[in-house]
């Protein structure tokens, strides 16, 4: 099985860090937590280079 991309869920403050490392935002999502608070986060993806897809 070959993996072409990596996806992660990033908090809004962490998005800039991941963007500098080559990730891009695919979409936003939210997760309800207690007391009516809603956690908003981004789904981010990075395409892997051909070199990183194949092991040693």
Task: Describe the structure in your own words.
The protein has 56 residues and is α+β, with helices and mostly antiparallel strands. Helix content is 18%, strand content 46%. It contains two helices and three strands. It has a three-stranded antiparallel sheet.
Q: Percentage of helical residues?
A: 10-25%
List the uncertain runs.
none
Beta strands, count: 3
Largest sheet: 3 strands, antiparallel
Q: Provide the β-strand percentage band.
A: over 45%
The total count of helices amounts to: 2
Strand order of the largest sheet: 1-3-2
- What general form does the structure show? elongated
Structural class: alpha+beta
Whole-angstrom Rg? 14 Å
SSE series: EHEEH
Q: What is the terminal-to-terminal distance?
A: 15 Å
Q: Give the mean pLDDT.
A: 90
List the helices and strands and how they pair.
Blueprint lengths: L4 E7 L3 H6 L3 E9 L5 E10 L2 H4 L3
Antiparallel strand pairs: 1-3, 2-3
Keywords:
elongated; 2 helices; single chain; alpha+beta; 3 strands
Concise summary:
The chain is an alpha+beta fold and 56 residues long. It has helices at residues 15-20, 50-53, and strands spanning 5-11, 24-32, 38-47.
């Amino acid at each position: 099985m070959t993996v072409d991309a990596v996806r992660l869920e990033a908090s809004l403050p962490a998005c800039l860090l991941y963007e500098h490392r080559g990730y891009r935002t695919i979409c936003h999502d939210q997760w309800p937590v207690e007391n009516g608070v809603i956690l908003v986060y981004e789904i981010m993806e990075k395409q892997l280079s051909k070199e990183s897809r194949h092991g040693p």
